[in-house]
Specification:
Elements: E1 14-21, H1 26-37, E2 42-48, E3 53-58, H2 65-74, E4 78-82, H3 93-121, H4 125-129, H5 133-151, H6 153-164, H7 170-190, H8 192-196, H9 206-230, H10 232-238, E5 244-249, E6 252-257, E7 266-269, E8 278-284, E9 286-289, H11 291-294, E10 300-302, E11 307-308, E12 313-314, E13 319-325, H12 331-344, H13 350-378, H14 383-397, H15 400-420, E14 423-425, H16 428-436, E15 439-443, H17 444-448, E16 454-460, H18 466-477, H19 485-494, E17 503-508, E18 512-517, E19 520-525, H20 527-532, H21 541-549, E20 553-559, E21 562-570, H22 577-586, E22 590-594, H23 599-609, E23 613-615, H24 623-632, E24 637-641, H25 647-652, E25 655-659, H26 664-669, E26 672-674, H27 681-715, H28 719-722, H29 728-746
Parallel strand pairs: 15-22, 15-24, 22-23, 24-25, 25-26
Antiparallel strand pairs: 1-3, 1-4, 2-3, 5-6, 5-7, 7-13, 8-11, 8-13, 9-10, 9-12, 14-26, 16-21, 17-18, 18-19, 19-20, 20-21
Helix pairs in contact: 1-13, 3-5, 3-9, 5-7, 5-9, 6-7, 7-9, 7-14, 9-29, 10-15, 12-15, 13-14, 13-15, 14-27, 14-29, 15-27, 15-29, 16-27, 18-19, 27-29
């Protein structure tokens, strides 16, 4: 299972998720993680740039939220509180304020940058206005100063905080680049003689400072907006539950807010209304649309005693149910919590980006300094000015932001889309394992099959009808405790058959039953039972052998030593089982079936599902060992199951896939949970995982490729060939768009469609 390799947690370990503000690149993530991991008692800390959250596991007797807050603040970031159990829809306050501030700073910077740009580019402007060139320089200085120190304040403050802790990040590069251009222009404006004395013609680059900040602000604003779209799936889940519910208390009905519902309350749901919380139906009958939670499009019939889930839609009749789970315990809240945990988790592939980011900024600083020295020492005139502009371009174009966003945004969008489809993927590690899968192993009973025997064949003899045979068999089996008896009785009820009266009922354990019906002695049981009663089975031997090969159990019915009929019962495969197996095989996966049944029965079921390889007669305790054997052969194995006895095998497998109808133990052991009892969701889950992995690889490739190409170009690699030197403002635009492109590419997962 994907959790192998995780750090061992103490028996009293506690895990909290923190909201963190002020992070903008992979270097920020590394610094925040390092600060949290340094807190005594912290056992593990994972910071996610896309969600701006940290998931921290710690010993509560050594650390607590206060210590974690102090670590975040000391690292130069903003502690925005713990993620509460009662999750509210919409952006958290810190995110909403940040988005508004990025927008304000951008529009102000743009409004000031346009005249700065025109004043710098139109060289005849002093002549047209009848003023000196220095007067124009002073005017540009006045406009640029608020752009740098107000609009660009987040970058300057961020760089200062990083420097205080002996660290560097994206803010360091932006601040150094914009400040270098600003200070050079400042000297040219107010002390031009200093430059002239060195043989440098005074020139100003206020437009470089202003346009760099404007482009980067645009990128940050767009990135924040796009990040909000990335979390839309969670937001839609959060808004599913109705804000109020009608509750019957003390014989009176009243509408109350959702958070005031108490356990045991009787909740009334009229047709067309959403169910508020989880509960059990006490009155009425209806059909409920559960697609918003499970992805299942067909409504589910509900009657007294059935469970209902909060946020589902009551379609037809009125229901009264008793609340059994409220608040953070509801099925919807558990889904949201699992998705958020998955979004906070870090995929192993991100470790490469983290390692690069940890040394990226110092390398860029060194490259920028080397670029400046080369241009100043060997560049064409004006060498100093060209050196300054190349230094600024190198500092600005580097982008660890894209590296930091490459993986978490894809995981964030993909897991959200999966939740909408009824597929819960627990974080980044199962993604990589799904990409490498070679085999999928299905448990048989309750997973590939319905887990409940049904009548499959009724073969009458001696002029009897199928209904007569079934009615006789059901009349006797109704009093039997044999596991197959219920299948006969259920089928008779479905056909609305009238069962004959019987007397002198006798049961023989493990064999069959006998009784008198209308003066006749009726026997119902196995072939062994009828043989002991000296009833010849030779006329039906061919039918018995054929049904046995098909893995079906047989029940024989006889009257007065004459065989009247045969009923076959089997645990049939679920709808869509064969289509699921075929879809997995088209994905290049080998499919196996694991069963505790005898080989003949197991192989019969496997043939119906289209599975050629069967591991039969496997005891529950040995299932995990069989998975381990496959792994030792070099296979990457997914295990699909639903029961308690499947939990060890789910945990042993590289990926455990649990059906949502299964037990809580199985769901806890699984890496991928399907919220609906639909086998066709399994290939969908694997296809979604593979698509997420493709997006992550694309994001990381372009993030690395961008820097591999952009840095040499910014340093001037193209100048010897074509005499072209990169404008720092273009470098800023390129850097800003690289982050936006990574997030936008991840958003393609929102359109993942079920084939």
């Amino acid at each position: 299972m994907s959790s192998q390799g995780s750090p061992p947690l103490g028996p009293s370990a506690q895990t909290d998720t923190l909201n963190i503000g002020g992070m903008h690149c992979a270097a920020c993530v590394a610094r925040a993680e390092k600060a949290l991991q340094a807190v005594p008692g912290v056992q593990a800390a994972v910071v996610n740039l896309a969600t701006r959250q940290a998931r921290v596991t710690y010993a509560p007797d050594q650390a607590g939220p206060e210590q974690l807050q102090q670590a975040i603040t000391a690292a130069g970031y903003i502690f925005e509180g713990l993620v509460e159990e009662a999750i509210q829809p919409g952006l958290r306050p810190g995110e909403a304020a940040e988005l508004r501030l990025w927008e304000l700073r951008f529009w102000l910077a743009l409004g000031l940058s346009l005249p700065i740009f025109l004043g710098s580019m139109v060289h005849a402007l002093p002549h047209w206005l009848g003023v000196s060139e220095q007067a124009v320089f002073i005017f540009l200085f006045i406009l640029t100063t608020p752009v740098l120190f107000f609009c660009g304040a987040p970058f300057l403050v961020g760089a200062y905080k990083a420097a205080r802790h002996g660290a560097t990040d994206m803010n360091t590069l932006i601040s150094l680049g914009t400040s270098a251009a600003y200070i050079y222009s400042l000297v040219a404006t107010f002390s031009p003689g200093l430059l002239s004395s060195q043989g440098v013609t005074p020139a100003v680059y206020y437009d470089t400072t202003a346009m760099i900040i404007t482009f980067i602000l645009l990128g940050r604003w767009m990135e924040a907006r796009v990040r909000g779209r990335a979390s839309e799936a969670i937001q839609r889940l959060l808004t599913l539950a109705p804000p109020v519910a009608r509750v019957r208390r003390g014989g009176q009905e009243q509408d109350i807010p959702l958070n005031q519902i108490r356990l045991g309350d009787l909740v009334i749901v009229r047709p067309g209304e959403k169910i508020a919380v989880d509960g059990v139906v006490e009155e009425g009958a209806s059909s409920v649309d559960e697609s918003m939670l499970t992805g299942e499009s067909l409504p589910v019939a509900k009657a007294i005693g059935d469970e209902v889930w909060g946020a589902t839609l009551n379609k037809m009749g009125a229901l009264v149910f008793r609340a059994t789970r409220i608040g953070g315990d509801t099925f919807l809240a558990q889904i949201i919590r699992l998705v958020q945990e998955a979004q906070t988790a870090k995929a192993p592939i991100q470790r490469l980006a983290d390692k690069v980011a940890s040394v990226f900024v110092p390398i860029v600083l060194a490259l920028a300094a080397l670029t400046f020295l080369i241009w100043w020492g060997w560049g064409p005139p004006p060498a100093f000015s060209r050196a300054v502009m190349s230094l600024v371009a190198v500092l600005i174009i580097a982008c660890p932001c894209a590296l930091g966003l490459a993986t978490p945004t894809a995981v964030m969008v993909g897991t959200g889309r999966g939740a909408e489809l009824g597929i819960l993927i627990r974080g980044g590690e199962p993604l990589e394992q799904a990409h490498r899968l070679t085999r999928v192993v299905f448990d048989k009973t309750g997973t590939l099959t319905r887990g409940k025997p049904v009548v499959t064949d009724i073969i009458p003899y001696r002029g009897q009808s199928a209904e007569q045979v079934l009615a006789l068999g059901s009349a006797l089996e109704k009093r039997s405790e044999h596991p197959l008896a219920e299948a006969l009785v259920q089928r008779a009820q479905e056909l609305d058959l009238t069962l004959p009266e019987l007397t002198n009922f006798q049961a023989q354990a493990g064999l069959g039953v006998r009784a008198q019906v209308a003066g006749q002695i009726i026997l119902v049981g196995s072939s062994r039972f009828l043989s002991r009663e000296h009833i010849s089975l030779e006329p039906v031997q061919a039918d018995l052998e054929r049904l046995s090969r098909q893995g079906r159990s047989t029940i024989l019915i006889a009257a007065d030593n004459q065989l009247l009929g045969l009923i076959a019962v089997a645990d049939t495969i679920k709808p869509g089982a064969s289509e699921t197996v075929a879809a997995l095989q088209r994905l290049g996966l080998e499919v196996l079936m694991l069963s505790g049944d005898n080989r003949q029965t197991a192989q019969a079921v496997a043939r119906q599902a289209g599975i050629s390889e069967v591991l039969a007669e496997v005891l529950p305790a040995d299932k995990a060992a069989k998975i381990r054997e496959l792994q030792q052969q070099g296979q990457v194995v997914a295990m699909v199951g639903d029961g308690i006895n499947d939990a060890p095998a789910l945990a042993q497998a590289d990926i455990g896939i649990a059906l949502g109808t299964g037990t809580d133990v199985a769901l806890e052991a699984a890496d991928i949970t399907l919220l609906r009892d639909d086998l066709t969701a399994i290939p969908q889950a694997i296809a979604l995982s593979r698509q997420m992995m493709r997006i992550i690889r694309q994001n990381l490739f372009w993030a690395f490729f961008y820097n591999l190409i952009a840095l040499p170009v910014a340093a001037g690699a193209l100048y010897p060939l074509w005499g072209w030197q990169l404008n720092p403002a273009l470098a800023a635009a390129s850097m800003a768009m690289s982050s936006v492109s990574v997030v936008t590419n991840s958003l393609r997962l929102r359109r993942f469609a079920v084939n």
